[in-house]
Amino acid sequence: MANVEIRHLLKRNRIPENDVNLLIFILYLPIGLILILLRSVLLLGLFILGQVLPDTSVSQKLINKIACLGLGISIHIENPKSKENVNVYVSNSLSIFDQIAVCSATGAVSPSCRTTLEKVLGLSTYCFGSVTNLDNFKNNIKQFIAEKKTPLYFAPEEKITNGKALLKFKTYPFEFTNKVQPICIKIDRPFLDISVTTIGSTFISDMFYFLFAPVTNYKLTFLVPFEKTSMSDDEFSEVVRQNMATSLKIQTTDFTSNDIAEWEKRTLTEPPPRSQNRPPTRSLNPELQRMSNQVKEVLPHVPLNVIYSDLYVTRNVDSTITNILEGRLHFTPEQPTTSNTINQPSTSSSLSSSSPATGASTYGGKTLFNTAASSFPKSASERSKSFQERKEQLIASARRRYIEKHNLDIPF
C-alpha cells in the first residue's frame, strides 16, 4: 500500500459484503448461537473460579486456559525456541484479547486498570494505576519488576487496528529495560470471515463475536530481542517498530492512537456526505420541480438533479441553498444554461463577461451572482457573518431576476 490512510487501518463491517459470505453466515447462525450459550456457561464457571482461587501464577495459568477455551481462542507459536527470558515483551495490537495469547506463551502480565471483568476472564492483567498519572504508573511498574521478577507485556500502539500498518509506538514501555523481545501477532478466523473489530465497536460487541465465531486463531512469532545500548527511548522504540513491520511485511505510519481515536469519533458523529445521485424520477413532484428551478436561478452552476435530491429531503429552498453553500452536497459544477426547468435538457455555454469588483458575471444579458467569498475569515463568527451576507445577496439577486423575468410591478 503506497499511501496508508487512517481509513485503511479500520474495518467498517464485521462480514465482507458478498453473497457467499452472507450465505455462509446465515447457515452458520444457529451453530453460532449454540456456541454463545455453551461458552457463556463456561465463562460463568470462570467467574466463580476467579472469585475463589488465589491470585497466583498457577491459578492464573489455569484461568487463562479456561478463558481461551471459553472464547474460542487457539494459540500457535511459530518459533517457540526463539523465546527468551526478558523483562518486557511488545507486540502489535489486533484485538481486545491479544494479551491472553501473549501472556499464555510468555507468562507475562499486562498493565491494566484491572477491572472486575478483566480479572474474571483471566486476562493476565495487573493494575499499576492510570496511565494519565504517568510518573506514578512508571514507578509502580519498576517496583513490580524488581519485586515479582515477572515479565511485562505491552502493546505500544495502544489502539487496535486491522494490522495493515503499524502505528507510532508509545515510548514509555521501552523505559523499563534495556532488552525487549518483539512478538508479531497474526489473527484469522477460518470457515467464517468475521472481522475481529470494527469502527466504533465496543469491548462487549467484540467479545460477542469471539463467542460466536467457531475459532479465532492467534499465530505468534518471536523476533530476536533488541538491546537499547546507547539509543534514546524514542530511537529504541522506532528500531523495534521497523523490525516488526519488516517481519509482518507491512508499512509503518506516523499516525498515533490519538489520531485514530479522533478520526473514529468524527466518522461516527458526522453524517455521511450527500451524493448527487438522482432520486426516483418515476413520479417527480411538481412543487419540488418549482422549488428546484428557484434554487437553480440563484445557483446556476449546481445540477438540477442535485438540487432536487436535496429538496426531496429538506422540502425547503433556504435549507437547500444553505446545504449547497456550506459544502454538504457533492457535485460537479456545470456551466449556466438557457434552460432552468428540471424536465428540459440543458444547452451548455460559457460566461461572456465578469466583474471582479461586484463579484458578479453576465450571461445572455442576465447577471449571475458569484457565491465565492473574497477571503476565508479566520474566526467562526466572521465566517458565519460572511455566509449570511452572501446568502442574503443571493436571495435578493434571485428575487430581482424573478421580478424582471415576469415583468412584475414590485419594488426591488
UniProtKB/TrEMBL annotation:
Residues 287-329 form the CUE domain. One of its GO terms (molecular function) is ubiquitin binding. GO terms for biological process: ERAD pathway. The chain crosses the membrane at residues 20-49. It comes from the Eukaryota. InterPro entries: AUP1_CUE, CUE. Residues 266-286, 332-362 are annotated as: Disordered. One of its GO terms (cellular component) is lipid droplet. It is a peripheral membrane protein. Belongs to the AUP1 family. This is Lipid droplet-regulating VLDL assembly factor AUP1.
